[in-house]
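FIELD: query
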Amino acid sequence: QFSTEEKSLILLNAVVLSDEEIAGVGDTLKEIPEDVIEVISDENVADYVADRNEEASVSFCRDSYGFESKIICAGNSYAYFSVPYDRGWSAMVNGEEVEIINSNGMMIVPVAVGENIIEFDYRIPGFKAGAVVSVISLTAFVLLWVLSKKHRCGN
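FIELD: result
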């Protein structure tokens, strides 16, 4: 119902959620009325960007396991990260683990009024299980190899 250009303008002020995810955010996020959507245009996009910048990340750093961001919020809300959602991500806000919500393939996390330190950590799904299976398999291989050498030498 909206053009690609209109969608990009709408997403300056919105996130896309499934019905299940909408139920999970409670009253923190509200549906945007159609009359507000019509107000967003190329002429006033700078105002929307300025509004978003008021609660944008004030610091950001990354390492080989993820990233950390500091955001100062005027009220309880959700922080949007244009980082592809994957089940390998985990997040902590102010030292407490929080659920990451998949917003149309990107990530949002709940934040509170004031300063929020948001930490994202990525671990490859299945890595630990794969490592355990590999160690067990290598151990079994070495054990069988040693036993086969002893058996040949015994003949």
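FIELD: remark
The longest helix spans residues 127-154.
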